[in-house]
Amino acid sequence: MLGWFDANLVSILNGFAIGSLLFILAIGLSIVFGMMDVLNLAHGALYLLGSYLAVSFVGGTSSWGGFLVALGVAALVGLLAGGGLSAMTEPLARRPILDQALLTLGVSLVVAELLSIAYGNDVLSIAPPPGLDGSTSVAGNAYPTYRLALIGLGLVLAVAVYLVVERTSVGALVRASVADRDMVSAMGIDNRKVKIAVLGIGSMLATVAGVLGGPVYGARPGLDGTILILALVVVVIGGLGSVTGALIGALVIGQVESLGRALLPDLASFILFGTLAVVLVVRPRGLFGPKTLAGVR
């Protein structure tokens, strides 16, 4: 057992790194859909937009200044994109969820095509910041320092998001808006502003994840679809609106994705969706999904 663990340590660490990145991406998608009842299929395109912003400000040159500027610009663009998506989906609030899905999917296709025109169809790389661009010895194995930092950042963000959602008045307001929007409105709080804020933060996490994932995946056409599918699998496995579920789901899918491709590359996709199928059979609402969801009465 120890021999197997040592032989596959790099793949296991890659699973944690991928899982941390997927959590940063999926937690926004989970909260927006699970709490605000907005199915944002443009989430993957926002991630890709963040990756191309990293290409613009960082590229192949290792620079803390460029990396931090890319993060700041990505955060601002994500907030603005969330506001725009909120305005676009508001007229569809009382219509079937498929209408939102088609609208945001259309936005995703337009954004992806514009990025392809602007940056071309080549795979573009993004350099990690100085100090994180080397390797660190882990149990005798050389492992990229940036990916270790990404693992730590994902765990810190998980704790921060959990505390905000579960332990602050802001989180209580969001949960109250989900549970009884009419009562919140009667108290003088505009539910639309809550929706804009949540969708803005969720979109911001997607674009920031794109910058953070740049040194791992780079930037290329089609990456938005791949990332969106993985994020949706994480959300379904973990359960809508659950921070704990998003973290556990992301770590599980990270390991399935990494170990599956390392040990059984020809069956990796089957293992990924097989895991999803098993969870849906055993726990249809996900591992930590609520008994009721926004929009489900």
Report the principal-axis shape.
globular
Query: Any idea how many domains?
Result: 1
Mean pLDDT: 87
CATH architectural arrangement: Orthogonal Bundle
Query: What is the H/E string?
Result: HHHHHEEHHHHHHH
- Residue stretches low in confidence (pLDDT < 50, at least 5 long) are 293-297
- End-to-end separation in angstroms reads 49 Å
Strand content: under 5%
Give the class-level CATH name.
Mainly Alpha
Estimate the helix proportion, in percent: over 70%
Strands of the widest sheet, in order across it, are: 1-2
Structural class: mainly alpha
Rg to the nearest angstrom? 19 Å
Tell how many strands the DSSP assignment holds. Answer: 2
The main β sheet shows up as: 2 strands, antiparallel
Total helical segments: 12
CATH topological fold name: ABC transporter involved in vitamin B12 uptake, BtuC
Notes on the protein architecture:
By secondary structure, this protein is mostly helical. The chain has a single domain (9-282), classed as ABC transporter involved in vitamin B12 uptake, BtuC. The protein is 73% helix and 3% strand. The protein contains 12 helices and 2 strands. The chain has helices at 2-7, 9-36, 43-57, 64-89, 97-119, 145-167, 169-179, 181-186, 191-217, 223-238, 243-263, 268-282, and strands spanning 135-138, 141-144. Strands 1-2 form a two-stranded antiparallel ribbon. Strand 1 and strand 2 form a beta hairpin. Helix 2 runs antiparallel to helix 9 (191-217). The longest helix is centred in the first third of the chain and has 28 residues, at 9-36. The radius of gyration is 19 Å and the shape is globular. The N and C termini lie far apart (49 Å). 44% of the residues are buried. The model is unreliable at 293-297 (pLDDT under 50).
